[in-house]
Amino acid sequence: MNEEFDAHEALVRELSDPHLREQYARPYNGRKIGLVPKILAAFLVGSGTLLYGRRPSYGKFKAIEVIARVPYQSWEVAAYTLVSAFHGNEKMAIELCKTSAFSRFAQDNETMHVVVISHLARRKKDHGLFRFTLIPLIFALIYFWAIYFLYMISHKAALELNYLFESHAYEQYQEFIDTNEEMLKQTPVMSDFLAFYGRNVKSEYEFFESVRNDELIHRNRSIRELEVRGTRIKPSFEETV
What we know:
The chain contains eleven helices and no strands.
């Protein structure tokens, strides 16, 4: 896990270079996505815009990040369910365990986002119990099971939906950075959880840059999961006994 963490953090730092970030993003820009993920993504983005506005803010990021962790948690639980059902298929079990490992790492990363951003939102007084805490929690509970069953039905659709969701998050963080660059550069970050996680940043600008880069990595990784392992894992009932 330490090697994966170190590699991820190194990539996050590299992607702060606009030229390297453009090169990293280009192969996955404009990906053709299925109809079901498009509809679900439009609902997610539309709901967020309705509740929190189009423009990015600390409070909006707090609410969104509560939900952003959910797909990775759902994938992990769904993968364990499938391994339990088809444990005799070694090839399938290996692929599902790889998905679980990626999901666990991404959950920790997204947890860092929501904890630190919640801390920043409180400092900015951009928070509230009902709108920014209870609504995201209720939505996350529903979303968890929706993604769980979507993954069980279509591995491809679940990953493509995450690609669209992470694409939107990436764009929102970029807009926030562009709009508030000077203020963010002048504001230091003080967070015990950020230090606990192991990410070293000096200002809110560096922090939000790193979160933007995380989302781009998650976006690309969602599609690479499809490219490397195929769009479907076909279970063999004969190998379960």
